[in-house]
Structures are given as C-alpha cells and as structure tokens.
Amino acid sequence: MASSSGSTTLVDTFADSSTLIRFGAVLFVTALTAAAAQVSVPLPFTQVPFTFQPMVVLLGGLALGPRLGFASQVLYLLAGVAGLPVFAASLTLPPGAMRLAGPTGGYLMSYPIAAFLTGYLAERGFDRRYLTSVLAMLAGLLVVYTCGATWLGLFAAGVGTAPIGLAAALVTGVVPFIVADLVKLVAAAGILPGVWTLLGPPRR
Fold this sequence. Notes:
Elements: H1 10-15, H2 19-37, H3 53-64, H4 66-81, H5 105-123, H6 130-154, H7 166-173, H8 175-188, H9 191-199
C-alpha cells in the first residue's frame, strides 16, 4: 500500500514555491509528449500508429501531479489544434484540430485525464515504490485504452467510412498494442521510484 507520507510530487520537491519551475516543468512534459509523437510507426492493419506518447503522458502525470499533469496535456492538445506539428506525422490521419475528430482522437483526448489520474495517485505516494508505480501507470493506460477504443469504435469516422464498432476497435486499437505498452510500462515504472531513492527519505 502506498505510504501516506508520499504526498509531495517530484515537481513539488524541486520547485518548492517556484511558479517558474512549475511552468517550465509543464512546458517540458508538453514538449516531450510532442517529441514522442514523432517516433511513430504506422501499422498496416489499424489506423492507430504505434508511438511512445502514452508512457510520456503517464510519467509526466506521476512527476507533475494531477493539476500540472493535466495542464501539460491540455497544452499539448491546444498546440496541435492550433496547427503546430506536434501530432504524429501521418499521410492518412487528418491534420490540426481535425485530428481530434479522427480515429486517434479518443486516445489524444484521454491524455489529460490519464495524466490527472496518475498524478492523483502520485500525490498519494504511488510513485515512491515500483509496484505502486506500475499500478498507477496501469490505471492511466486503462484510461487511454478505454477512451481511445470507445471513440474509435463509436464516434470516429475516416474519409468515407463510418465508425467501426467497439469489437473491431478493441481488435485494431487496443489488442495490437498491449504487449508493447506493458513492456514499456514495466520499464518506465521504475524511473520515479529510482529518483525518489536517490533523493532520500521524503520530507515530513
């Protein structure tokens, strides 16, 4: 069980009362999310590309906490809606604001929620130990999968196509990514506990 002493997030520890450091941390996670989108691998059997974004979103939530984690991903989405090249490059997915209405819109719109949830758990000490860090990131990943598959199956429509239905959305938008995402999650979940170990016992 997470320790009640773990109520301070990593950014709180470094920023203390500095608004400038918090703002810089939010911008850094936003930029890192955009950079992760550029490592994109299109797959022939689905409209959803493979990217490293989910892990960045979840780690950002753990490090920033719920409010700043949420803000970092809202800022990312606003940059994409404004036309900045922060979404994954694609020949088939719509650009700019229309990307949110396309097949991957549900995944993108889930990012603020997933970051908030992992940040909420981090405030309760889930980022201090490896197993609870895994649980926090799994909870966030479940949000991404649920929102992404629901949008893909029931609402998103490509050019000249209708929504594909929930069953097909699970087959093409979730199942192909589970193993890779779990491998990334198991590796990434040790980062925050490792940093806390280097910093020493939490402040009282």
